[in-house]
Amino acid sequence: MLTPSQQLQSYYLAMFGRAADPDGLNYWLLELETGSLKLEGILQQMLLSDEFASQREVLAQLDNNGWVNEVYQRLFAREAEAEAVSYWSEQAQNGYSSQALLLAITNAAQGTDAEALHAYASIADFYSANVSSDEYDAERSLVQDGFRSNDQLYQDLAELDATYDTLSLAQAGESIEGRPLYSATVGEGPRKLMIVTQQHGDEPVGTESAMHLLEWLSGDSEAAQSLREQVTLTVMPRVNPDGFERWEQLVSGNSDPEATLDPRRNSADIDLNRTWDASETIDPALIPETLAVRQILEAFQPDLILDYHNQNNYLNEMGELETMSILWPTNDSVEPSITATAQQAAIALAQGVELFDYGYLSLFPGGDAADIGRNGIAIDGTPALLIEQRGLEEFELKALEGLELDFDAVASALTLEGVLSMIGVMQALGNDGFDTIDPELAILIPERGARTPFDEIYAEEVDWGMDIAATPSIESLYDGGELTPVTLAGVAEPSSSEFLAA
């Protein structure tokens, strides 16, 4: 369910291809608050704008009813399937107005499309609420296209290093297959935070968050400069690049799932997140990735380490998908003060993600084994907090079963959620070192809900994404008065006066 503000963002995205500018959004929200206009009235006024008249001309000129695909990209960040193009272009040719079509396409969204729209509108809403009118950029990209390849990751790290004097980059080691493992450090503050991402090769969201954090923190904004004075951050992004390479090859169809080593594991078929018990002896040649992290950990001596992963789909008591689950060390050998610090970090993280009106936080029900990262690292004296974000099942289905799902909108929302979780921890750590946070509050975080497989959540979409035959009729979706028969695209060009009569 979209909030009124997110609904307004969906109008801006669909009609103008941009997030709402702050002044425009505030104006329409005030109209809603005072009762001067309802959402339907706002939509009608937007359709009468010069900007939409210009956009309509652009859409009308697209070949082969390309306007449908453009609207799908603007709302769901995906290509429209042939059935959708055929269905909606037929409705346009039948004479339905732009208002009716836009409402119908939005309201007909279900399953993954509804989730993508919510994610997209949430990102747009966050941007509009947190950018000044002077800094607002109508061309700003809100959704990232897929995940960085290994080569792109290395290139982006090198570019950050070359661009910002505030960031230093070093190679910490190599994977079994010889891919570099980097550490990037920003800041000069007395508090120290370390972030590790992608111990599992098929869990890429945290890496994207960490890269966005590095770029923002290295920049010239007052907030970034202030935080650099308080906290020194070291990030090790994607410590299992070999596994990620296998995942990419599987998703692209270039590898056989039956003959490919699980991308979750490293190239020695070892789960890196089960190599952290210092009392166990493991051949160093089999876990160079863990050793590289240990080397940086021992040299940097952080006050806290955040370990980012992805998890499967879980529904809370309200039937909503949980987007993030977290847990502190739970092994009995961990010093209570170490556990308390990680619990304080959990509360700081929760406060950070509250800034984003998207998703649900829960408590991860992890084990107490000493070889798990958050436990083994904590036993050795460093507080560690596990962060699990949703998406893992979708990533696995894309790799192993060829699921055709455009996950970009949701992944981008999860990436933003991850960035805010990192910043929330950094701000609290820098301000007072967590001194004002009661660790006992962490136990109030709700427990994670029931595991729900993808095909149960999206049973009607597993095959190809949308059952056009089952789409409700335009008439049943439109509740704004009489439908005006005006053509959008695909047939003879209507005059502006005819179009604006909608």
Shape: globular
Distance between the termini: 26 Å
What oligomeric state is this? single chain
On the 0 to 100 scale, the average pLDDT is 91
Beta percentage is: 5-15%
| Secondary-structure element string | HHHHHHHHHEEEHHEHHEEEHEHEHHEHHH
- The main sheet orders its strands as 1-2-4-3-5-9-7-8
Main beta sheet: strand number and arrangement? 8 strands, mixed
Share of residues in helices: 40-55%
The SS-based structural class is alpha/beta
C-alpha Rg, in Å? 24 Å
How many DSSP-defined strands?
Answer: 10
Spans of 5+ residues with little confidence (pLDDT < 50)?
Answer: 462-469, 477-502
Q: Enumerate how many helices there are, as a single number.
A: 20
Structure explained in plain terms:
Helix 14 (336-353) links the parallel strand 7 and strand 8 (361-363). The two termini are 26 Å apart. The protein has helices at residues 4-16, 22-34, 39-47, 50-60, 66-76, 82-93, 98-108, 112-130, 150-163, 205-218, 222-230, 241-251, 288-300, 336-353, 373-379, 392-400, 408-432, 454-457, 474-477, 496-500, and strands at residues 167-174, 180-186, 191-197, 231-236, 304-311, 314-315, 324-327, 361-363, 384-390, 450-451. The chain has an eight-stranded mixed sheet, sandwiched between helices. Helix 14 packs across helix 17. The relative contact order is 0.14. Residues 462-469 and 477-502 have low confidence and may be disordered. With 502 residues, it is of the alpha/beta class. Helices cover 46% and strands 11% of the residues.
